[in-house]
Amino acid sequence: MEGGWPLEGGVLLCLIVSLLLPGMSNTFTINCSGFDQHGVDPAAFQTIFNQKDFRPVINYSVPTQVNISFTLSAILEVDEQLQLLTSFLWLKLIWKNPFISWDPEECGAISKLTVTTENLWLPDIFIVESMDVDQTPEGLSAYVTNDGHITYNKPMRVTSICSLDIFYFPFDQQNCTLTFSSFLYTVENMLLGMEKEVWEIVDTSRDIVRTQGEWELLGINKATPKMSVGSSLFDQIMFYVAIRRRPSLYVINLLVPSSFLIAIDALSFYLPAESENRAPFKITLLLGYNVFLLMMNKLLPASGTPLISVYFALCLSLMVVSLLETIFITYLLHLATTQPPPMPRWLHSLLLYWASPRKCCPAALWKENVGPDLMPTHLPRLKEPGKLVGELGPRQAELNGGSGLTSTQLADLWVQFSHMMDTFLFRLYLLFLASSIITVIVLWNT
Fold this sequence. Notes:
The chain contains 11 helices and 15 strands. It is of the alpha+beta class. The chain has a 6-stranded mixed sheet with strand order 7-9-10-6-5-12, with helices on one face. Strands 8, 11, 13, 14 and 15 form a 5-stranded antiparallel sheet that branches. Strands 1-2 form a two-stranded antiparallel sheet. β1 and β2 (11-12) form a beta hairpin. α4 packs antiparallel against α5 and α4 (248-267) packs antiparallel against α11 (407-445). The radius of gyration is 41 Å and the shape is rod-shaped.
């Protein structure tokens, strides 16, 4: 035939779709002669395209098998206040259309074509935890193989509900779920399967996510429970995604500066208690710490009470207690130079125990007033109060609250008490810093 396609046996060798009714034949073959020379004629697939509104099966009692796979390419945001996880993933769906088939040998070994998804039936797979409407871009295509298998890849920005536990922030690990299911087809019409193994999904996702953002992927597990809605049963695949926050940013910007300020405040105890510069120095540190907390507040979670907030509260409390202790000691030393107040008996006994030579760190006054071969009972000021009343006289004992101690002895005891408070608070600072460092190391390596 001049200017047209040659006829062979009265049959036009153009692209013809042979779609036979069920029961008449089990063969659904596309005559693909000319695929490699003249391209694809849309008319060859028009009959199939017209059936896109119906599930592509020969027997409607047989469910369609849809295999699922995805690649987690980015973790965009974790909202602790709203309990939401925003991630970006590439979803891959594979199913079979029995009405599409051709012989690759007849069309130049072409075994795969791309077809726009507008012309194909697509499974209604969605993520149960998703809080956003599917915003899949238009104009996507799918791969169609010669045996009828269709591979559909689509990008998805998913904002899903996730139960977030931020107590160990910034060393927290989160476990979120992504459940894929159909909202229309029950198990009688659609079954879900895996296109690849879970470890393959993890390896592919980890290679992409590992160098991006604040979070790193720890692992993915799956489960295949059924979802019952009334009398209907839906197939679903549930993926458990474990992620961990990278704490370096928060350790450098939050924990390290806070620890430095606390360490400087602890070193301020080396300033003499009688010094007038000690209280202003501590006030300056306290103001600086408050400014630091205000500036770094945007890095902390907006809701909940993480462990790091408790740490900051303890640091602030220690600094306030240290300032109050400095003010109290200054007041005591001022009284010691004028009229020292009486000392309660229990406090006197506590000082005796604290200043015992068996202690590793005796007070400074003990070293000044006690010789190497004297015991505490050899000092008049450390005698039992009742034994000293007669020696000092009733009038002097009454002035000193009945303690039996002179004003000089009381002044020495109050000075010794201030040294004891300084030592106790300094050791408390050291214990707090050591505990904080150990906790950070343990949480970081867990």
